[in-house]
# Entry
Amino acid sequence: MLGAIVITVPVPLGDRRYDVSIGSFSAAQEAEVLAQALGRVSGVAVLVDGLLAQISPRVAALVSALSARMPAVRCFDLPAGEAAKTLSAIEATCQWLAQNGYDRGAAILGVGGGAASDHAGFAAAVYLRGIPFAVCSTTLLGMVDASVGGKTGVDLPAGKNLVGAFHQPRAVIADLGFLETLPVREQAAGLAEVVKAALIADAPLLATLEAHVGPWTPQALEPVIAAAVRIKADVVTEDEREGGRRAILNFGHTVGHAVETESNLGLRHGEAVSLGMVAALALGAARGVTPPALVGRAARLLARLNLPVDVAARLTPAVFARIEVDKKRRSDKVRFVFCPGPGQAVLQDVGLDEIRAQLPPALAAQV
Ligand SMILES: NC(=O)c1ccc[n+]([C@@H]2O[C@H](COP(=O)([O-])OP(=O)(O)OC[C@H]3O[C@@H](n4cnc5c(N)ncnc54)[C@H](O)[C@@H]3O)[C@@H](O)[C@H]2O)c1
Ligand SMILES: [Zn+2]
# Structure
């Protein structure tokens, strides 16, 4: 059975171009898209998020449909979620790839959320100095953000995403059927990155999110995912290796990363980004960059999407200390992304003293 409408968003990176296919796929249809994108391969190593492998029957269906089309299709379960993003997990994967005889002609398929796609992409970037990979993204955050753009990597005890590589996938599939098992909290976390994309680059998308009533069904999510992917594809195409414009994707992430780390895994990434966006909007308003009305407007939308907005309560000295060591810091300035209006972004360096002094009163005044 074929799914309904499939939306294809190209990522036009020259000889590294690929498509992001969004829709409700049958396993056969999905396997066909992957087989076409990967071409002739000597084998396919399917690296699956360990929890997903247990709870979703779609994984086994996909693997069997792939086996009907491609050689040496074997599955390896990754530790679930962020636990896959360690160098020791990468070592385990590479060891398994070698033991199973995967050679330079083989390809990797990552199946799972952003953690699984970051792991799969990085394993593909380093195994035998690089083999092709594709992603079947199964969380909303993975679909709208992590699976697109070619940033791959793992964490260190010293911090998240500190080891990695740029390696573009050959194909990305956002199969809406996987979203059926996704917990609502994970869905909300994914929507935070959609709000981010709307605020920095797509005013009509912001209006669409605000106008939506009722639950976010896969059908309601499909055009929203496509819009967010188009934005990411646009920005990445213009600046593949984050020399310039790609930095706007960090909107909400300066304060967001700091509160995320300080929460000791209490906050999902998207929840932290929600808090970080409120902080960036309020600071932007205090600097005269952001229209004050936009702060309240965005905070109302985020709250309605079940995302936290009370960032003032989280601005502890430890959070400021984290902002200070933010890896995007330059000398005594922190590079902030501000939103001068719906669908717009500017980068400005802000002194640490200004952040410490202005952020709490700015929040008290605006939210
Ligand atoms: N490479 C990039 O450009 C980029 C961008 C954004 C985020 N990321 C990374 O993505 C990661 C976060 O991704 P995430 O939010 O998808 O988290 P995740 O991959 O950790 O998945 C969240 C949880 O959902 C489970 N899960 C996955 N699919 C499911 C499904 N269909 N049904 C039920 N449960 C499911 C997982 O087992 C996990 O427990 C972070 O490590 C972040 O650094 C990378
Ligand atoms: Zn993010």
About this structure: The chain has 14 helices and eleven strands. The pocket of zinc ion (ligand 2) is lined by residues 145, 193, 253, 269, 273 (CB under 6 Å). The chain has two domains: 7-181, 184-366.
